[in-house]
Specification:
With 595 residues, this protein is an all-alpha fold. The chain has 25 helices and 5 strands. Its EC number is 3.4.24.-.
Length: 595
């Protein structure tokens, strides 16, 4: 069935962006106003830190402009994402991005100026202008990194070298996303088709093992043909990370990356340690998979085929909204009121159409609704996507309603906790209301696969990422032979029931996250924290539920580890990780009995 054009999607199934700007003319007027005001920001630098009043007024003007330009950009990006063929809104987006870049250049004086303030001067400023205290955490977060910020000339030179330092990552993206020569494979109808990343994700879940094997072999033949090139791009990217860390006075790239959000390295170390302690659970799960599939040996291409059959449940968008509200009701009236507002006021854009951005996200700005983009598929995954993105949206709504603009957002370290807490609540709800053993088995397996993909797999990536940065720092050349050997070693430790020696050693060539500078561990820590929080919400008391809501309202008013501690999870300890693995084991036990 052909996808509809954007203009043919029923209005009630589109998001209402007139809540941001009533029409394009209003957007253009605001764009012109901000463009005219932009030069005034640079003028602030002359007297920015001469006294408390100027300091407060300067910060207020900067963040007022930031707030306005964020709203401008939100309208442009949301408008273009629902139809990327619409050149009109693509031009709006380009204009907004250009203005944003000019804004960042205009306020480049701000951070060095704040770092140049002596602590005694800041103390006097706070005493002279009490209203400055609203900026205290923001200022503290900048001062926290003081010893890692170089003089303005040095920082300017490093910034100017940004394109060169990012060249390896850019080359990888172009090569992997558009120029990689994919081969052909056999689909489930027996026809030879050219492989793509999207098609691979479908075929690797096929019930036909030969289809899975051919897709697997074809994919890694393509990536393997360029493994030396990919080794060079990855090595260049790692060197850029290590260089940036050293010149900014960090002991290593991992510490530098985590310190941006004031995350201590013990959070990372604890994750790897505890996950490795519980690898026998993953081995039990892969052994169960091998048994159910009736295989004498388990290959890596056997890890993604559903072992409980296809889901018998399907959901229209309206049915999914009802089911989501039933599940999320446990969070209480305040949370459910926000969910109802999101569901009933054209804040979600669910229908897939020609030119629409793929996937799903929750977006917007401080002064907009927490808009959700979906591409509805009427299946079990779509239901989970809805509660996941609604978790982000309610998090955004609560933050914006309870924090000033300055603290009205949150880092990715916290973002994935709010969304996957909803997923875990939904899983518990579905299990509590399902008595059919076949359907229970499907839900249990869905959870275990999600856990495997989010905690075990992302931690596996985190281990490899740490290794490649340490190896480069120690002077080792990141050749494809070294990368293949290390990746295979880690993979075999994680998936002990699989046959060693497969082309999975090349998987590092197709993982873009290895270019993101210690990013993936946050998926694992977030999901583990979500398991603990969902349990507190469902089985705990009102105080624990309120603590979670307070976490959602905190935004970035505190450092991330402090913020999540408000919800009852201390991520510097291992208790939350142990709790997650206990849940995995309980559900694995039940699935083993059912199968």
């Amino acid at each position: 069935m052909a996808l509809p054009n954007r203009k043919d999607v029923p209005q009630e199934l589109t998001w209402d962006l007139t809540k941001i700007f009533k029409d394009d003319t209003s957007w253009e007027k605001e764009y012109q106003t901000l463009s005219n005001q932009l030069p005034q920001l640079a003028e602030i630098s002359d007297n920015f830190t001469t006294n408390a009043t100027n300091f407060y007024d300067g910060l207020t003007k900067i963040f007022s402009f930031d707030r306005q330009i964020s709203k401008l950009y939100a309208y442009a990006s949301l408008s273009s994402d629902v139809d990327t063929t619409n050149s009109h809104y693509l031009s709006y987006r380009a204009k907004a991005e250009s203005l944003l870049n000019q804004y960042n250049a205009a306020i480049s004086f701000m951070q060095p100026a704040i770092l140049g303030l002596a602590d005694s001067t800041l103390k006097n400023f706070y005493q002279e202008a009490s209203k400055l205290n609203e900026y205290a955490h923001f200022i503290d977060s900048i001062k926290h990194h003081e010893k890692h910020v170089l003089d303005s000339r040095s920082e300017s030179l490093i910034a100017a070298a940004g394109d060169a330092l990012n060249a390896s990552s850019s080359t990888y993206n172009v090569l992997s996303n558009s120029e990689l020569p994919f081969g052909y494979t056999q689909d489930e109808n027996g026809e030879m088709v050219q492989l793509s990343a999207g098609l691979y994700n479908q075929l690797i879940q096929s019930q036909d093992r030969n289809v899975r094997k051919m897709a697997f072999d074809s994919l890694y033949a393509s990536y393997g043909s360029l493994q030396n090139t990919f080794a060079q791009t990855l090595a260049g990217n790692v060197k850029a990370h290590n260089y940036d860390a050293v010149v900014h006075n960090y002991p290593d790239a991992r510490t530098a990356s985590l310190d941006k959000n004031e995350i201590t390295t013990d959070v990372y170390d604890n994750l790897i340690k505890v996950v490795n302690q519980h690898l026998p659970l993953l081995h039990r799960y892969t052994a169960l998979r091998k048994k159910v599939l009736g295989l004498s040996e388990l290959q890596m291409y056997d890890l993604y085929v559903p072992i409980t059959g296809k889901p018998t449940s399907s959901y229209t968008f309206e049915q999914a909204k009802v089911k989501a509200k039933e599940a999320l009701a446990v969070l209480g009236g305040e949370y459910l009121d926000e969910v109802n507002h999101i569901f009933d006021n054209r804040i979600i854009d669910p229908i897939e159409s020609k030119g629409k951005t793929t996937g799903a996200y929750s977006g917007g700005s401080y002064d907009t609704e927490p808009y959700e983009l979906l591409n509805w598929t009427n299946d079990f995954d779509a239901l989970y996507t809805l509660v996941h993105e609604t978790g982000h949206s309610v998090h955004s709504a609560f933050t914006r309603k309870n924090q000033p603009y300055l603290y009205g957002d949150y880092p990715i370290f916290l973002a994935e906790i709010a969304s996957t807490t909803n997923e875990n609540i939904l899983t518990e709800y579905l299990l509590d209301h399902e008595t059919d053993n076949q359907k229970r088995a499907f839900i249990l397996n869905f959870f275990l696969d999600s856990f495997k993909g989010t905690i075990f797999r992302q931690t596996q990536f985190a281990e490899f990422e740490q290794f490649i940065h340490e190896a480069d720092q120690d002077g080792e050349a990141l050749t494809c032979d070294l990368l293949n050997a290390k990746y295979e070693e880690i993979n075999q430790r994680y998936y002990g029931n699989t046959v060693p020696g497969s082309q999975i050693k090349l998987e590092w060539t197709r993982i873009p996250h290895f270019y993101y500078n210690f990013y993936v561990y946050q998926y694992a820590t977030g999901f583990a924290a979500a398991c603990a929080l969902a349990n507190n919400i469902i089985h705990g008391n009102d105080k624990q539920k309120q603590a979670y809501l307070n976490f959602l309202k905190s935004g970035s008013s505190k450092y991330p580890l402090e913020t999540i501690k408000l919800a009852g999870v201390d991520m510097t300890q291992t208790t939350y990780l142990e709790s997650a693995f206990k849940l995995f084991e309980q559900r694995l036990n039940e699935l083993e009995k059912l199968l």
